[in-house]
Specification:
Structural class: mainly alpha
Distance between the termini: 49 Å
Number of helices: 15
Radius of gyration: 22 Å
Strand content: under 5%
Order of helices and strands: HHHHHHHHHHHHHHH
Number of strands: 0
Shape: globular
Largest sheet: none
Amino acid sequence: MPPEPSTVTSKFTPDVVHELLCVLSDYSTLSAAIRVSKAFYDAFQSRSWLIVHSILENIVGPALPLAKRLEHYEQRIVPTGDPRMHAIPDEEYFRVHASDWELTGASVRRMVERAKTVQLLEGCYSIRYKDRTSCSSRLNSIEAVRFQKGLYRYWLCYELLKNEAFTSSTAKIPFSDLSDADDAMQEWVDSNERPLYGPNKRIRNGLMNVFKYLAAPELLELLETLAFLEDSMIWLQNAHWESSTPFVPTYRTPIDPAQLAKSLEARVPQDGYMYGLGGDDHDLIWVAARCLLRQRKDPAHLQAYCDVKAIVIETENDGDTCTVPSLGSGML
């Protein structure tokens, strides 16, 4: 008969046990593992933060700093009653000072749930833009990281808008050159886009301030993520549209990724056709990112007007004409 598990595991040194626990794929496995033997339990107790953080990184992936930033804003800035962006550290802080950021059980649970949403939407994105023949994500490691970072950045912008971070009476937008931003805006406003006035201009300037440290490829990834979310919302609405005329949105508005993922999974649209913040003629995230590229005189701004994939390196099965397969409980 094989030896009892406790007899085997008791031979492992604390360092070996620590390394084993750090590579686990989820917290359910961790909970089971620390019940295997006292050695596993003691190793977890002595280095619990490192182990919990390592498993969270296994779940979320390389986009973990951006996931932390979103969690920091939602749960540590918004509850203070001052939802402005100035109080949240920049992205680099969450990359360099990971050990300084308090990780609570509630935060871990929320971040795991968001990671599931990101994974579900990544699978949907893969089907639509990478490989229509596969029911799971076929994005390679580079493409997956691009998508995940774009989605987490978008999600933070959505929360900023939802919490009126740029429109409250105490909001301060330190963007240094708003006149240039207005000039850049006017250069690309066409007959289908009205210029921004009042609160919308203030929101756009605030978002430009959020985006100012992003490189052109990152801005293009953000724009593609936004386009994907909007296309998915329109697809879902058309799937339940009773009119013979295809559904076309009358305005653009930010979309809640969590609500959209639930709707796609259940194949049931929410009340109304928007999962966003309400009526406006502009998607101000879209406007701000493009305007910033234009203001920089970056050649990448031309890509923002074309159907250029900033995330996918190459598609698979381009000639396939079959209908989109279902994912999980029915997504797409």
